[in-house]
Amino acid sequence: MRFWCEYAWLPDGPAAGVAITVDGSRIVSVEPGVPREGTVLAGLTLPGFANAHSHAFHRALRGRTHADGGTFWTWRERMYAVAERLDPDSYLRLARAVYAEMVLAGFTSVGEFHYVHHAAEGKPYADPNAMGYALAQAAAEAGIRLTLLDTCYLTPGLEGGELSRAQRRFSDGDAQRWASRVDDFRPEGLARVGAAVHSVRAVPAEQIPVVKSWAAGRPLHAHLSEQRAENEACLRVHGRTPSELLADLGVLGDGFVGVHATHLTDKDVALLGGSGACFCPTTERDLGDGIGPARQLADAGVMLSLGTDSHAVVDPFAELLALEADERLAAESRGHFTPTELVAAAARHEAIGWPEVGRIAEGAGADLVVVDTESVRTAGSEPLGVPLCATAADVRDVMVAGEWVVREGRHLRIDRPAAELAAVIEELL
């Protein structure tokens, strides 16, 4: 397949008149500045975006947690109530619609931070990985690359205690049994497996190295300093911040991604150099988490990626714009990230184990997103500025691994994802 792009976002920014040749699931040539030929892709063609942090079932809470205000911790109780009602069938249907929403928005891969493993009271299903396979099937049917970040979750807090009824569904009992279960999970197709430590709250320090060892050569993620209360508890129990604790346990470094990384000390930032950090600005805003030190982390050599987390918003442009906008609010100045840096963060599939995807270049995976440059939001913008003024509504076409999944704003595999979302959420709630 040969496509001629009016504009295409290459690794160093947008270029005009770009011919892209796709063979199978790969881009085999990229030629800027050539005459119009082949299939024309009008507008701006970008690399597919990576949603590096997702909890698919949180989508059921969108628009339902604001009337009484509350805190992160009261929101969490609402989330647990949804988790208690899930089973493999309902999770398949919900996740399929959520993943379809992601593809329609321009995401071509998702890192699913998955911890709802078992049935009520923590009883394993006949297949202990039934929920994981439901997510893999959902991703396949929605046409999105999946990295299932199977999450170890063992305790309710740093001080220990008994797991709640909902939390018992998350736990394998100990890290060794978690590892044994995940060893047997082998999804097919465009699906890969990584690991996650839910947080230093939920996995005792002495068991974290088991997860680290299992994840060798795979992505390893962890919620990190999302709330000040987490830092305070870690200092009280361990005399160290979460970042310091993970550093002492040998967790930080290549392959590790700290999710949120909101409340960090200067020492934490330095320790994270050479690791990754996934910011989820729309969720962090929705939950009142705070603004993390994104520019400081990037300057320290931390690889930045983006995620939609609770799916209060599913829009890669909203996330990349917020990365810059939040820095502006915190610093009271402009221009902290260039548009090229923002697009690179939004397309960082490497953070979830797809290093071959995320750029329009020879040899890269053929994931493309075509954006309308003549909508009421984008009309008149220069190509370099389109990612800062577009929204998910401007995504017209999406290619994943060389196959069109969205054309003219319509999902080709799932006819009515909005109706599916409404039906399964009504059933769950």
What integer is the average pLDDT?
Answer: 97
Helix content: 25-40%
CATH topology of the largest domain, anyone? TIM Barrel
Shape: globular
* Unreliable stretches covering 5 or more consecutive residues: none
- Determine the structural class based on helices, strands and strand pairing: alpha/beta
Task: Please explain how this structure is put together.
With 429 residues, this protein is of the alpha/beta class. It has two domains: 2-47 and 358-411, Urease, subunit C, domain 1 (Roll); 49-352, Alpha-Beta Barrel (TIM Barrel). The chain is 33% helix and 23% strand. The protein contains 15 helices and 16 strands. The chain has helices spanning 72-85, 88-105, 130-142, 165-168, 175-183, 208-214, 228-238, 242-248, 266-271, 281-286, 294-299, 316-331, 339-346, 386-389, 417-428, and strands at 2-10, 13-23, 26-31, 39-47, 49-54, 107-114, 145-152, 191-197, 220-224, 256-260, 276-279, 303-306, 368-371, 395-400, 403-407, 410-411. The strands form two sheets. The chain has an eight-stranded mixed β-sheet, with helices on one face. The chain has an eight-stranded parallel β-sheet with strand order 5-6-7-8-9-10-11-12. Strand 2 and strand 3 form a beta hairpin. Helix 2 (88-105) packs antiparallel against helix 15 (417-428) and helix 12 (316-331) crosses helix 13. The protein starts with a strand and ends with a helix.
